[in-house]
Amino acid sequence: MIKQVRPSTVARPIGSAIKSTVGAAVSGSRSLASVAETYYPEEPVAPKIVSATVPGPENAKAIEKLTKVFDTRAAYFVADYYKSLGNYIVDVDGNELLDLYAQISSIALGYNNPAVLKAATSPEMAISLANRPALGNFPSSDYAEILADGILAAAPPGLDKVWTDLSGSGANETAFKAAFMYKRAQERGFDADFSSEELESCMVNSKPGCPDLSILSFETAFHGRLFGSLSTTRSKPIHKLDIPSFNWPKAPFPVLKYPLDKYAEENRAEEDRCLAEVERLIKTWPNPVAAVIIEPIQSEGGDNHTSPYFGQGLRDLTKKLNVLFIVDEVQTGVGATGKFWAHEYWNLTDAPDIVTFSKKFQAAGYYFSEPKIVPNLPYRQFNTWCGDPSKAIIARAIYKEIVANDLVARTAQVGEYLIGKLEALSTKFPTKIQNLRGKGTFIAWDMESPEVRDSFLKALRTNGVNCGGCGPKSVRLRPALVFEEKHADIFVDVVEKVFQL
Description:
It comes from Magnusiomyces paraingens. Its cofactor is pyridoxal 5'-phosphate. One of its GO terms (molecular function) is pyridoxal phosphate binding. Pfam families: Aminotran_3. The protein is of the alpha/beta class and 501 residues long. It folds into 2 domains: 1-47 and 92-114 and 407-501, Aspartate Aminotransferase, domain 1, CATH 3.90.1150.10; 132-403, Aspartate Aminotransferase, domain 2. Helix content is 37%, strand content 13%. The chain has helices spanning 17-22, 35-39, 57-67, 102-105, 114-120, 123-131, 143-149, 168-188, 196-201, 227-230, 237-240, 264-284, 308-320, 389-404, 407-428, 450-462, 485-500, and strands at 88-90, 96-99, 161-165, 214-218, 250-251, 289-294, 297-298, 304-305, 324-328, 354-357, 364-368, 434-439, 442-446, 465-466, 468-470, 474-477. A 7-stranded mixed β-sheet has the order 3-11-10-9-6-4-5, with helices on both faces. α5 packs antiparallel against α14 (389-404), α7 (143-149) runs parallel beside α14 and α12 (264-284) packs parallel to α13 (308-320). The radius of gyration is 23 Å and the shape is globular.
């Protein structure tokens, strides 16, 4: 049984923190070491647990009330977002937890960030929310500027166009649609008209109007929970059960040994094996492959890494075999790995054809550069909202703060510090920290079993740290970009205390 350890340091009260923080400076040059303090002068100095159990009695009441109208079975606890601040999430019992999960990797700048709150309460935002433009038909007069200053300013190297969507799953789904339409346009001729047979057969879900094309993904991949994306998601059965699927190929994802540089020779052989199988599948799969999709670091599937050699090999293969290369940066993008986009570690000569995004941008969509990836007629890539300018306004605020405070470099620095502390801890607890790996603060390790991992995560919450798992038995760290060395010290101290129980 894992027992509770209460941190000895008392946290500051933060009930009025949001009001005072909104008035703080929201951009400009700051000392990198003091960014979090500038944003959050009233952030707690340590976790604080006030209920006898976590979750506590107020959580139980809130869950009971919400369960009557909403499925709460996956809820860890009910949060109080009015009081949550910076790197700390507060629950309805008043417990203040250091948060290394950050809304499943989707909080970039901490809770109630002043720059984000300023954007969220601006007249520009009010107009966007009140009128919710149907962007495909009635784009707003300022949408080009909003995109140019935010989402497009952050575009991965080599990509200069964007299609916006509503979620990470939606970003991948629309990327798949773009890949299929591009493939058929190649085969038909980009300037050719649709045949009457194509137009008629698609209305009864038949060929040639509905062709047997496919998207190749990898073992243990996660690309979303919608119909098309589920056919590329392969991380857990629970995601896919009972849902009809497409006959799409699954390639092996390299099972590497860590640390990667210590096992370079064995890992190269494993990546060669997987690349050979990707090539074989593309050449032989009965439903022609329109695109290959991969996460630079498989996230839900267990924080599985590849080397630059593998990314470069995939880029070369997709060009050679005339299929599009889609990089899913929904969870890895926007700075957490110590680069703005994780695939930048691959040092590709040619950019991916499509890069999808969401999470830390709190907006979603995909980047591309080839003009012919845009379908040849309107309404082929379309829905009522085609994204949301309100989310693009938030993404712009996030991007500007990241750049103004050099938070990508800062995250790389803090990540190096944190992984060094965890390496030292792993020498004391080698069975509890296995296969430690990470880039920036995008860090994970394995534990002895799923049961031990799950018990450990519960014990962390009991002791004031909110953290998540992934894969069968991995612990994953996903803090905000304002997570600093002082937060890392608290986290490692709590981990060590839990390990000692």
